[in-house]
Specification:
With 174 residues, the protein is α/β, with parallel strands linked by helices. It is 30% helix and 21% strand. The protein is built from 6 helices and 6 strands; from the N terminus they run H-E-H-E-H-E-H-E-H-E-H-E. The protein is globular, with a radius of gyration of 16 Å. InterPro entries: SAM-dependent_MTases_sf. This is Methyltransferase.
């Protein structure tokens, strides 16, 4: 499907999960600027609104003013200082969130060249579950999957068997 240009396993599993829970008749607010996966969603019939690059830790206006019924945040929460306040400001009843999981054999990601491309949080699955529960959401479905790399070595071997990503679909408790 998305073999050559994109991280195909992650994007294909995320798209399958999205299709399982979200109708193309619903409008999606995707946290973050337009990106390869928001383009994939559009190519698959979804109406997608992206945030404009504002610092979401300080400006959550788009979460309150845009017209959407589904909120997505794919590999974004780990970059935020306080994802709880983001969830408090989401007006949709449906959320899909994916995060890279904290790996015991690898330190938190930190780009040496891009000050925004860093992980403030390296979540364990229970931490995202608790965050969603505290913000008033009930998890309906979840998926963990690995992220193998085509390299030799101990860490690449561990990546073949250790789940790296955690994907959750949750609904607002009424």
């Amino acid at each position: 499907m998305y073999e050559k240009t994109y991280p195909s396993k992650r994007f294909n599993l995320t798209l399958q999960f999205l299709k399982k829970h979200v109708s193309t008749a619903e409008t999606v607010l995707d946290l973050g600027v337009p990106n390869p996966f928001s383009k994939i969603m559009e190519d698959n019939g979804y109406t997608v609104i992206n945030t404009k690059g504002e610092d979401i830790d300080n400006d959550q206006t788009a979460l309150q003013t845009e017209n959407y019924s589904v909120f997505t945040a794919f590999e974004i929460f780990e970059h935020l200082l306080n994802p709880y306040t983001v969830l408090q400001n989401v007006k949709a009843d449906k959320v899909l969130i994916s995060i890279p999981l904290r790996l015991w054999f690898s330190p938190a990601y930190r780009s040496k060249t891009d000050m925004w491309d860093r992980h403030y949080h390296e979540f364990e699955d229970w931490q995202l579950d608790w965050l969603l529960e505290k913000a008033g959401y009930k998890i309906v479905d979840r998926l963990k999957f690995t992220h193998p790399v085509k390299k030799l070595g101990f860490r690449p071997l561990l990546r073949w068997i250790t789940p790296r990503y955690y994907l959750v679909y949750a609904e607002k408790v009424k």
